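Example record used in the benchmark description.
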Amino acid sequence: MLQSQNGETILWGVLQDGRLVITPAEAGDTDIVHSVLSGGEPVLSAGTANIIPTATGYQGILIDDVSGHFQPPGILLRIGEEEFARFGISFLRRNPIGG
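Model output (structure tokens):
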């Protein structure tokens, strides 16, 4: 999915087993919701991000922990940042909202 990224907003979530999952925030004129990432199951962290391709991979522009569906106690943006970092993606800006 990242191959087609050019800064559009994506939804991300870190599942209970630690896996990072992402999806576009929109499909045509339809907004996608965070609950599709985990089939409605609880997550460790969730939010939105903007990522662009670079000559050597990808660069995160902005990451936040905004989610209208997942508001578990102690949502931590750090969890998402660490999972993206495993794929070589760091973010220029972070906007922790939920925790």
